[in-house]
Every structure is written in structure tokens, then in C-alpha cells.
Design a protein that fits this description.
Number of domains of chain A: 1
Distance between the termini of chain A: 31 Å
Strand order of the largest sheet of chain A: 1-2-3-7-4
Order of helices and strands of chain A: EEEHEEEEHHEHEHEHEEEEEEEH
CATH topology of chain A: Chorismate synthase, AroC fold
Helix content of chain A: 10-25%
Radius of gyration of chain A: 21 Å
Number of strands of chain A: 17
Shape of chain A: globular
Largest sheet of chain A: 5 strands, antiparallel
CATH class of chain A: Alpha Beta
Oligomer: homotetramer
Number of helices of chain A: 7
CATH superfamily of chain A: Chorismate synthase AroC
């Protein structure tokens, strides 16, 4: 159900294909009274725009969108906010040559297995371009969080010298994006199936090319002893805090008031200049070679940074609203 | 919303506290016509029963439940299946001594911050005992999967010599549980926000004590090059497969037909025999010491094995049903 | 999805068959801190208990249940509240004789068409007995409403002299139940698909034997002119009110602060002592005759009164919680 | 949650205000492989276009939209289908004069109570213009139904001589729209809270200006005896049917295979040329007079006919998909 929606009270639904007429997002459940302009969203979108660094693909698409609904006289009205980004510059012809081949590491095989057909132009719906819509929605979420004293920041672990080398080789590499949310009050998140970390994990693993998620000590915790992992409670700045933050900001799915810290693992981009063995749609063995002129990102984790921020913000704003209903 | 429910078409809702009258689960959306007995569920429950190994806590609770509804003349009717496990043996008195203290690594601080009160007896709703309900529901899911040729298995990475040492020390250690699902057809899972890996991640990170989730190559992918990570497509046994399975069984959120392989990181159990610095509910610094007679699990990952299997099964059966609706 | 659940933030899930082991309800999303006892729920249940009037069926079932979870030291904890009512007195043997016949006006034909099988004992899941669970959940909802100054009352339009006559004839009659909610603040309900009247309509039409729903002027509005239907706004008791209440308490799906007034039409009970033409499961024409000793309610609308109250309360408490999230 | 969404598996989300940039709908869950063109949707939209009859408001808006996503090479792909209708012709200036007054029978009072502000231009989000999006989505639903042999038709009960008189008077009248769905197989709809009639009732009562819903015998059933209401089962055309159809096509929430017949009551349009007593936003008593040049529909039920068809189709297509999952 609703495979293209995320969130419960602050709920987004995205639509659009990479090489279709436009992509867009509908935000349903944004509280009324928030000041909001096109510019604020477009500034956030600019952070993930391609061509920002020499190591991201060179599509010149400016990624400028506009608010279609839900804002009146500069404020949100409680009605759904639709934000649309037209697809201006694209050339689908280069995808024609390989449209009969399974593309290793990509969506076409599984989409065809599921749906019987696939919009192969630029990856269609499976393109990372969809994440622009998440960033747009995340911009609205971040504004609400900021009013509540909450900030979200993410960063990647990549070294640019290595990336230059990979560009020359035509190869790619994976990466890790770390996110940190500060100012989050204790008590956010729900028990059992709606634990904050469960929602964060789903948020991150719904991003293209992700292979792992961890919170706080993460996989390192698997080799730690309880005596070193337990975060002692202490009084600091007049409130309960923990001396360490192995928990990464939650206990039993609910925030402690400490920073929320987590990491997301991204696989190396599948589109590389080296040929890969594959089969055709007609089940004949062959070789996949990236068409001339195709984009080549040596590392998708770089452009994922603002997207990870957006997903963190979306999870937190939903938890913040939900928290208004937990007590009598 | 519905913090105690999981799944869309095959949807479970759990209830009950560790030291309350009973725990239970309602399964809504189980297809009609499935043969099902109490015994089949109880056998699955026996796998996670405490006291099964010297390294799990000694509670003697037999974990035997019964089907209350939804089965008629040995078959599911399409009506909700309620399965209830009475809480027979428990002694809540030992929790009295520490009920005024924040328990490091546990739920009481965050629950009190959220709800203003906490059922401290045995961890209440936050107890791992809730996972018995997941295993019960998972037993039903596994039966449906088996009819579709799908099996799910999980295992842990723990070494029992180390555990003996930890028992003596009164300390604990984390662990990793790996799950593998075989026989899964290509095409399961939904794009974008309902990617199979997103749902698996949420499933696993909703378990108590989890700190990380990864699929296939997982966090290792972050250091790999595309040229080694890409899984080549090949024809084998008359169908499209991949030569390697770094993907871990999905591409773009949808199954490839290869085994689904993932891992879950568990933190070391927080209840250890070493004292931990803490504060009281009245904000006074003090020390938390595990009450005499408290259970002590050196590693929660061991008992988590059947629970991880159950969550995998629940995600897959939901995807299997959902897949009936994706084509005209 | 979740065919046995109702509500969004205050969400109930019911389970159990008329002649199974028990029926029950799980309430997920009840705010923490509400004082709640078994007795309070059982008192509300007593209102719909059979045998209360000479015109309701004589089953002696006391309808006494107990809270299994979600309440600690007399207060709700925020955890799911499970309330279970055991099925003590029933005799399923009388249903054996007619189990191979389609029962006019009943569920067995459509359930068999859908699911391939049917728990025919006492109507199974389709029995009006399921509504006891709604009343139990409604009792909790009413407590929350009362704390907010909101009351809900319902009444039927039946004349008891007519009912005596119908009892003698072995026939039945339909009826109308009117509900009124007072003290409801302006601003509850959501626009478009979650209009308060849409949710009330779904709530009422989900009850067994209902054929119609109307709010305020209802079907009479279809023959009225705008000049007589429009409710003028006036200042009264220091606040905005309407001079008349043809609207029935909402405008555009959101409450006006005036009483919410609506009506539900119930069909005459299908179980009557007169034979009805039917066919067997084997498609052979025959006659359906109510088995000796079967219950016979001359009018289901009488026992529906507390159920209509419960459904009204459930819709309102959900809207009340949802309203906490509509503004910044 | 998701106040602007409707449906479970075939789920629509609408957005846009009457005098905003555009209105639109996202359909999530449409099965892949359906042939679909802009024209097919626009033809359905033309049925509700204003100015089609002398008795509907004269706005010249052509209501022509386009598919933005989800269709590739003429077929649906399984991705969300976004359909957008730009708002071309509107003049918001005439709403300025009355923007400080509560408008009897309209949304501004309740929206301001809920959200603290209101987009008053043409009714904003509360405008009946939103129903164009329902008709667009309904066009897609109808195509799927047609492939399954199901047709949906609606009609109103209005007499045009009366309407001419009302036009002269500047008054309005209510109306009833009846819908009939034929070819619906037995077994659609879910028990308990997702009864087909419950979903139909919610669908219809979510339309602007509706005051009542009934299925089959409806409110007349309240005065009928069981002996005349019961629909006898008979064999006809080789299958089980009922001799009469007082049920209106469902029993216990699930379709019988007989035509689904129901009715929706609409109130008289609130915008009339006669002055109505009201108060200002500043709580001062005054009179509401429809501004010069305002549209005046003597009866909203006329234009509601295709919208009622659309809502019926949306409910049925959702039930049709859901039915694929009810048996093993």
C-alpha cells in the first residue's frame, strides 16, 4: 500500500520519473501557520544539485521547483503542499542502445519481473532523481524542527584524492554518511514497531544504493561488553543526560535527549566504465557497457548527504507531531 | 499511529506486559484456508523459550499459548487470529528496590519522559518478552511461505566459551544475527518507500537491543569499488541469476530471486552484575546495582535468532500478498 | 488492510467469533494517564447485554470482560489496552441443521464466496456479538471525551406495543437510532476524505444491519431550499453559534461547536419465524426455517443504541487527538 | 493522518485550491499494464465541467489536465500516476468584499477555527473543484472495472422546470443522486470495519454538501418488517441470486453479485441570492449578501453525478484488488 508515501502525520507522497515531465511531492499533514516560500525549498534543493562538485554527475538540471498548493499569503494552511520540479534538460536517446539488456546493479531486471515493463529512460521511477522530492519535503520538515530547536546535519567519509583517481579509472566507490540531530527533546518515538530507530532505518534503507544502517555504537556494539557499552546516567546542565552516547540518542525506541547519531552505508555506484557480464531481456549472455555520454558518479554517497538529512528531518517531525498525542 | 502494529496486508498487533496477565498478538489479514494448530505455533515459540541454553536467562515460563479466534475446523477463516500466551510464573517484587532509579540502557527513563509513568515490573511493555508474540505470528507467516517454497533461517555468531567466561564475570556481550531467505521469487517488494530492505530494516530495528542492520555486502560495501561490487547477471538453471550476491537479494528494493541475506547487530545486554553510575527519578546521583535474583543474559543475540526469523517471515509474507496486486 | 481495525490515532482492533473462546479488542493509541478499571467498561457493556428487555434475544451471556494489558496501578500507560470477554454460554448444535443452507439476509453466502469457508456457529465473526468489543472500546473513548466536556447519547424510535405484536407474529421490524454529541468544540474533523461526517458514516455503516446514515437535515435536505436550509451565524453566550442546526454540527467536515446530530437506519432483523425461500450450498432450491430455540430479536435497533454511542465516541476521540497536530 | 488520501491499495491523494495554480491527484497502487491516455481522463472530466447545463455555474474553466507520471509508452508502469489540472480562469477579487464575514453553510468558519487561517479565494481547498481530481482518478478506476465487466452509473432526481424557477428566484434546492454498479462479482468487500457499504458511505459523505447515504432499502428499511425485507435466495441464470434486492448488493459488508444500489442526499447549495444573517470574523452581527458576479448553482446534485460515479468506482477497484489477497 502506498509504496510512494512516507510518514504518518507529516506524510509525503512522491511521484515522477527521471525523464518524465516533472517530479514532485505532496506533503499532507504539515501544520498550519508555517511561513514558507519557494526559495527556502529551492535553496535546500541546491545542496543536492548535480554538478556541484567535480565528483558528481554533470547533469545541468537546475532543480528549481515551485509550490503549487497549500500556502496562502506566505503561510501553510493545513492543506496539502504540492511542490513540483519540472524536468527540463534530459536526453533519453542514449538509453535506447542498452534497453534490451539487464543492467547490473540497477532496477530494470526487478521492475520487469514485478511489473512486466520498465520506463528505462534515466532509470525512470527508480532514479536517484526521486530523492530531490525528499529534499524538498525535508526542507519543510527542517523549518518546523528549527522552530523547536532541533538541527539535523549529515556528512560523508570520502576523500577527494581517491575520487579523482576513480574518475580517471572510470570506477566507483561506496561510502558512509553520518547524520547527527541535536536539540531533540527526550520522549520522541514510539514503542515497539514505531521505534525511532526503526523509522530511521526504514527511511535510510528506502534510499537508492543503501546497504546498511546503524545507530550509535552500531555494528561495533556486537563486539562490546555491557560494562563498556552501558551509558551511565548523570546530571548535567540541570538535566538528566548520559555520560557517553553509545545508544546514539534513543533507549527502547524513544529519544533520551542526547544527540541522535547514526550512519548509512552506500554501495559503490553501479554505473561504471568497466564492462560487466550480463544477459539480455531475451536471456542471452552478453556484456553491459555504459553508453557513451552516460553520467558517471564515482560515489553516490556525496550527493546523498542532503538526502540523509532530509530523511532524518522527516522522521523527527513526524515523531514530534505524534508526541502531542501520547498523554491525556 | 498504531505503534504496536506491523505489516500492511498481513498485519500484526501485539499487546501485553512482561508481568501482566498475558501477552498476545492479533493477526489481521491472514488468507483463509491455511491449516493451523496451537501446536505449530507453540513449537516455534519453544525455540525462543528462556532456559533453553545455559546462556539465556533461567525464567521457567513455558511460553505456551492458544489460538482464541480466526480458526474454524482446523483452518484459518480470514478473520483475525488472536493468539494469547498467559504469564504464569513471575515475581515482580525484586523490581521494587530499583523502581526509583533510572536503569542504564533500559526503557524506564524514556518511557517516563514520554508517558509520565512506567510499568517497571520486568520491563513492562518494553520487555523482550513482547518478541514471543512476534515469533507466534512468524510461525503463521512461515507456514504460508513454506507453501510458496520459501524458507527462512537465522543464526548467531557467538562462541560459547566466551559466554561461559562472561557468565562468571557477570558481564555481557553483543552479537550479530544473520538471516537468509531462500526460494524467494523475483519481483517481491515495492519501490521507493516500501523497498523490501526498508521494511526488513524497520522490522529488525524494532527489536529490542538492536543497533544496526545490513543487507548483502552491507557496511563492507562502503569500502568496495563498483568493479568488484557489481553482481553480473548470468543464466543458470534456466533462469536469470547473479554470479555473486553482494546485493543480498534485492535490486532497487525488489527481490532478484537470489537468497536474501542480511545481518542485525545487537548491543550487549544492559543488565549486568557490575554497578553503573545513574541518577534517581528525583534527579539524585547514585549507583545502579542489579537486584539479587535478577535474570542475567550474557548475550541477547542468542535468543534473538528465532525472532529475527519471525520478522523476516512477516516482511516476506506481506510482500508476497502485496505482489498479487501489482499487475492488471 | 486491517479489516478489523478502526480509527487512526485512537485505533481499535477487534477479534473473536460469537461461539469461539472469547471476543476482544485491542486499543492502541490511548493516551497515558487515564484512570481506568474493568468495572467502568463492564458497566458500559451491561447497556447492550442481551436479555435486558423483553424484546432482545434471551442469551444469558453476562458480557463481563477484563483488562489484560495497558493499565498499571489504575492508569493507562500508553501501551495497548487489551480487553477480553470470554464466551461462556453458548450452544452451537442448533446451527448444525441449517449449516448447508444459505441464510437469507445473513453473512454465510457472501463469506463463503469470499473466503471459501464460514464459521457458521452463531454467525461467527459476522455476529452482532462483535459489537460488544466496540462498546468496550467506546467506554474508554467516552471517559476521554467526558474529561473534555463532551457527552454522547443515542436513542431509538421504537414503540413497545408494536414490538409485542411482532414477538407474537415471529416477525421483526427495522428502526432508526439517533445520536447526539454535545460539548464538542469547533474545529474537530479533517477536510476532504477525513471529514467528520465521512468517518461517522463509515463507523455506523460498519455496524451489522445498517442501511443508511444521515447528519443533521439528512435526506430531508434533498427537498429543501437553500433559503430555509442555511443556518444563520449568530452570537450567543459570547460565542459564534448557528440559529438553526440543519448542518447537524459540521461544516465542510469540521465541527461548528453546535451539537452533532445524526441518524442510522437499521433493517429489520433477518432471523424471523416465517420461512424464506432459499438455496442450499449445493445450489438446490429449498426453504429456510429458523431452527427451534434460535434467538429472535424483533428489532436490532434497540440493542444497537449503546453501540451507536460507542462508534460516535470512537470517531470523536480520534478527531480530538488528531486536532492536536493541525497547527504549528 | 493523510486527510487528503482515499483508498488502501488503489490510493489517491489530491491537492490544490480552487484559485491556486493547479489542482491535481496522485494515484498510488494502480496496477501496471493498463492502457491510459490524457484524453480518456479528460473525457470523463468533461462530464462534470461547469457550464454544461443552464443550471450549473457558468465558470468557463475547460478542466483539461495531463498525466505527469506513471505512464510509459501508453501503459501504466505501477509507478504513481500524477494528473494535474491547471487553474486557468479565475477572478478572486469578488471574494475580497466578504472575506471578513462568516459565510453561512460554508467552510470558512470551521477552517479558521481549526487552522487559524483560510484561503478564501473560491473556497480554497474546500471548494467543490477538488472533486474534479476525484473524477480524474475515477476515470482510471472505471477502466479497470470495465476490464472486469463492472459498470458504474449515477443519476439525479431533479426536475428542470423547478430549476428554472429557482434560477429566477436566486434560490437553490437539494437533491438525491442514485448510483448503480452492475457486474460486480460476489465476494468483494471486507468484514467488520471495511464493509463495502462502510467504505461507500465514507466515500460519499466525504463529498461537499452531502447529508445522507443509504444502500438498498435504506431508510425505508427502518419501517419494514423482516418478512418483506428478506431477500430470498434463488437460482437464476445458473447462479445464486436474490429474488429482490433490498440489501442493495451486499450482505454483511460483502457483495452478493446483485447490483449495488445506493443513494446520496445533497443539501441545497448555500450560495443563494437571498441575504442571510451572519457575524463577522470580529464577532459582529451583520448580513451576508452574495457578491455581484458570484456563481450560483441552483442544485449541486446535478454536477455531483459523475463525482458519485467516481467515488463508487474508487471504492470498487480497491475492493477488487484487496480481494486478490483473501485466500491462500
Amino acid at each position: 500500500m502506498a509504496a510512494n508515501s512516507f510518514g504518518t502525520l507529516f506524510r509525503i507522497t512522491t511521484f515522477g520519473e527521471s525523464h518524465g515531465k516533472a517530479i514532485g511531492v505532496v506533503i499532507d499533514g504539515c501544520p498550519a501557520g508555517l511561513e514558507l516560500t519557494d526559495d527556502e525549498i529551492n535553496q535546500e534543493l541546491a545542496k543536492r544539485a548535480p554538478g556541484k562538485s567535480p565528483f558528481t554527475s554533470p547533469r545541468k538540471e537546475p532543480d528549481i521547483g515551485e509550490i503549487i498548493s497549500g500556502v496562502f499569503e506566505g503561510k501553510t494552511t493545513g492543506a496539502p503542499i504540492c511542490f513540483i520540479i519540472p524536468n527540463k534538460e534530459y536526453d533519453s536517446t542514449k538509453y535506447e542502445a542498452t534497453k534490451e539488456l539487464l543492467k547490473p546493479g540497477h532496477a530494470n531486471f526487478t521492475y520487469i519481473e514485478k511489473y512486466g515493463l520498465f520506463d528505462y529512460r534515466g532509470g525512470g521511477r527508480a532514479s536517484a532523481r526521486e530523492t530531490a522530492c525528499r529534499v524538498a519535503a525535508g526542507a519543510v520538515a527542517k523549518k518546523i524542527l528549527a522552530l523547536n530547536g532541533i538541527t539535523v546535519e549529515a556528512s560523508h567519509n570520502l576523500d577527494e584524492a581517491l575520487l579523482e583517481e576513480l574518475m580517471r579509472e572510470g570506477d566507483s566507490i561506496g561510502g558512509v554518511v553520518e547524520f547527527v540531530a541535536t536539540g531533540v527533546p527526550a520522549g520522541l518515538g514510539d514503542p515497539v514497531y514505531e521505534k525511532l530507530e526503526a523509522n530511521l532505518a526504514a527511511a535510510m534503507m528506502s534510499l537508492p544504493a543503501t546497504k546498511g544502517f546503524e545507530l550509535g555504537s552500531g555494528f561495533r556494539a556486537a563486539a562490546m561488553k555491557g560494562s563498556s557499552h552501558n551509558d551511565a546516567f548523570i546530571m548535567q546542565d540541570g538535566k538528566v543526560q548520559t555520560a557517553t552516547n553509545n545508544a546514539g540518542g534513543t533507549l527502547a525506541g524513544i529519544t533520551t535527549g542526547m544527540p541522535i547519531v547514526g550512519r548509512v552505508a552506500f554501495k559503490p555506484a553501479s554505473s561504471i566504465k568497466k564492462p560487466v557480464e550480463t544477459v539480455s531481456l531475451a536471456n542471452e549472455p552478453t556484456t553491459f557497457v555504459l553508453p557513451e555520454g552516460s553520467r558517471h558518479d564515482p560515489c553516490v554517497a556525496i550527493r546523498a548527504v542532503p538526502v540523509v538529512e532530509a530523511m532524518t528531518a522527516l522522521v523527527l517531525v513526524d515523531a514530534l507531531l505524534m508526541n502531542r498525542c501520547c498523554r491525556l
